[in-house]
Amino acid sequence: MDYPALLAVLQQHANPKRAVPMQAYMKHRFAYFGTGKPQLARLCRPFFKDAAKLPVDWDFVRRCWDDPHRELQYAALEYLKKMQQHLTPQDIPRLQTLITEKSWWDSSDVLDRIVGDIALRHPEVNNVLLAWSTDDNIWLRRVAIDHQLLRKQHTDTVLLETIICNNLGQTEFFINKAIGWALRDYSKTNPEWVQDFIDRHRHKMAKLSLREAGKYLSPRVV
Asked: Which residue spans traverse the membrane (predicted)?
């Protein structure tokens, strides 16, 4: 992958005026070129068109992650999504590094699906996710909680319950939000299971988690 060429393209299309509200939305954690998501996808498309025909270029990912501009991290994530068929359990340590560096909800919400895809194909990764679910790093815990999003009937409910229970009684917003999302998503497939989980663990669940989990359930959950 040609990192210098991609960087040059993003610099060429930078919009400093638009970058100001983008940086503010992310609480000034990152610099921005001012490239919106549709435009970024369009600019990256020629670079990623044939990417899946080659092995994963982790040097490219690393250089994108080291760049101060958030769009380069978004580009790296889009690249990894294109390369998911090539990712294996051996790549988990590299993905763990991405989760714990320049961490925020926007990158976490992509990395959880990438890790989840590996775990679905390689169930031995579940042991890693169980370890992450009790880690001091909240973003590893968040990825562990939400890595089964959109699995529907393929959801491992024993794993889901264990990981969520490892994180009940928290005051951390991003953890309680993730718990609610995980339960809300699975309630579309198995509302009875989610209702039963809430009935058994309601006393330990944050109001935010209950509110999110109960979105598609009966009003008594809220």
From this structure: none
Residues 6+ apart with CB under 8 A from 114: 77, 80, 81, 84, 87, 95
Find residue 69's DSSP bridge partners: 31
Asked if residues 207 and 177 have their Cβ atoms less than 8 Å apart, the reply is no
Q: What's the half-sphere exposure (Cβ side, CA atoms, 13 Å) at 75? A: 37
40 lies in the same domain as 104: no
Mean of the per-residue pLDDT values for the chain? 96
pLDDT interval class at 222 (50, 70, 90): very low
Q: Which amino acid is at 108?
A: S
Q: Where are the alpha helices (DSSP H) in 14-104?
A: 16-25, 37-48, 58-66, 70-82, 92-100
Same domain, 185 and 199: yes
CA distance 210 to 206: 6
At 116 the pLDDT is: 98
Question: Residue 175 sits in a domain of what CATH number?
Answer: 1.25.10.90
Q: Model pTM?
A: 0.93
Task: Quote the strand ranges of the chain, DSSP E.
Answer: none
Give the closest residue to 118 by CA, choosing from 166, 80, 153.
Answer: 80
In this structure, are 99 and 82 located in the same domain?
no
Structural domain contains residue 222? no
Residue 220: pLDDT over 90: no
Domain hosting residue 162, numbered range: 92-216
Lowest mean pLDDT, pick from 59-73, 111-125, 173-187, 205-219: 205-219
